[in-house]
Amino acid sequence: MQNFLLNFFKDLKRPVPSVSIALFRIGFSAILLIQTFHFIIGDFITKNIIKPVVLFPFIEGLNPLSRPYLIALSYIMLISNIGMLLNKFARFSTIIFFCCFTYFWMLDKGYFNNHYYFMSIICFIIFLVEKEASFSRNLHTPKISVFSLQLMVFIVYFIAGLNKLNPYWLFEFQPMRHILEVKAELTNNTFFKKDILIIAISYLGVIFDLTIGFLLFFKRTKLFAFSAIVLFHLTNYWLFKDVGEIGVFPFLMISTTIIFIDPTYLNKLFNLNEKPIIQKTHSLFLNKFLVFFLIIQILLPFRHVLFHGHVDYNGIGQRFSWRMKIMYKESEINYFITNIMTREKYNVSINTMLTNRQYNNLKYFPDLIVPLAKKIQLEAMENFGLKHVKITCEYQIRFMGKNQQLLFPKTLDLTNIKNPAMTNKWLLPLKK
Where are the alpha helices (H) located in 107-221, listed in sequence order? Predict the structure, then answer.
């Protein structure tokens, strides 16, 4: 085993053509450009940053800039995206895009989804490993540059597959049954309700996720893997585009197959036959940082084991874990302000405070419940002169179609809860 690891790490230092990284960046950034145009044309800033009464930043104190600066930042993001695509100051463009894009989605947990996180991670790795890449010169780079991108793609698929190894997915075929039943109603096509289809999609999905990453690494199975990825993600786009947030994620994952193409083949394709130009090997610090970063990406999705309870039910540890399309919740949420002095109780209309996306994420991520309660308390004190109030919430939830239950006691003063994202002690356990 020791010899295997020594040979493995030695092989990661071996120079390989860097054209595969350049081509990967171009393919990946082309999909990013679609997302960026949608961001600007759809007026994301106004709808999701300026208008909302409350935001849920990932980092305490991370506040949005004023509107003119936000608009300027969005166009800087667009220009840097084009730079990535056209190979103009590619490395600088990549880090600028990473900073702008990551800043936008970190402003609000209520707008988080997995493919935003994936975009940021890949851009960050590209910035780290791509010193220079070209289609006109036979540049070589340490194999770890290519492998780090390959491994990140593998992590997404494999961990997504591991997450599906649960009784709901394997035996009750949820949430796929729910999703396809909604699809059937929207399309007026009862075919989507057929058990054979629901079971087939459920099991094919978990088999695909668990195996496709391995198939990509072997020469004999690469072509099959490429074909399977295209078919799988186009099918997913067709199935889910009407019934959930899927965006450009299928096309992002299709674009990642480029990094698994044999770089020697790409050299021949682009007629890069001159003597190889070996780039300077990565510093020891960079290599160690890459290894550390990738280990974090492997471990982070499993942090929920540190907490009691079902991760998909309580939402603690659900983000950044590639738990995609594996749950559904139905909920009724009613907030109340209680004047402690007079014991008068008032219902709060949260629909006027949240965007549709924020409200939907309130169902999936209970850590949003507490900061919303504190915002309601602040509004009550500032706008209505109420000095001594408590904020409660009657949160009824149906998890995976099971019986309705309270997520937490309805008499609980939510403003007294600290670090809701790091503890689930205030949440009631899932009833079996």
Answer: 114-129, 143-163, 167-170, 176-187, 195-217
**Number of Cβ within a 10 Å radius of residue 241:** 13
DSSP string for 25-66: HHHHHHHHHHHHHHHHHTTHHIIIIIS-S----SSTT--PPP
SS3 assignment, position 412: coil
Strand extents, DSSP E, 370-422: 389-399, 405-406
Confidence of residue 245 (pLDDT cuts 50, 70, 90): confident
- Listed in sequence order, the residues at least 6 apart from 271 whose beta carbon sits closer than 8 Å to its beta carbon are none
Task: Report the phi/psi class of residue 253: left, alpha or beta, with left for phi > 0 and alpha for psi in -120 to 50.
Answer: alpha
- Spatial separation of the C-alpha atoms in residues 419 and 427, rounded to whole Å: 13
Cβ neighbour number for residue 251 with a 10 Å cutoff: 19
Q: Where does the pLDDT of residue 136 fall: very low under 50, low under 70, confident under 90, or very high at 90 and above?
A: low
- By C-alpha distance, which of 59, 170, 175 is closest to 107? 59
Other CB atoms within a 10 A radius of the CB of residue 78 amount to 17
Tokens of 62: 């991370």
Six-digit token pair at 252?
């992002």
Residues 6+ apart with CB under 8 A from 123: 32, 94, 95, 97, 98, 101
pLDDT at residue 273 is higher than 70: no
Identify the H or E element spanning 382: helix 369-384
User: Which two three-digit tokens encode residue 135?
Assistant: 């289609």
CA dist 323 and 163 (Å) reads 6
Between CA 239 and CA 231 the distance in angstroms is 12
Residue with tokens 């738990």: 323
Contacts of 339 (CB under 8 A, 6+ apart): 345, 346, 386, 388, 389
What does DSSP say about strands 139-142 and 277-278: parallel, antiparallel, or unpaired?
Answer: parallel
CA 93 vs. chain centroid, Å, equals 22
pLDDT in tens, 149-172: 999 999 999 999 999 999 999 999
385-421 as b/e, with b when 16 or more CB fall inside 10 Å?
A: ebeebbbbbbbebebbebeeeebbeeebebbebeebb
Burial bucket for residue 22 (CB in 10 Å: 0-12, 13-18, 19+): buried
Per the confidence metrics, is the pTM higher than 0.85?
yes
- Domain locations along the chain: 14-306, 330-416
Please classify residue 196 by burial: count the beta carbons closer than 10 Å to its beta carbon, then call 0-12 exposed, 13-18 middle and 19+ buried: exposed
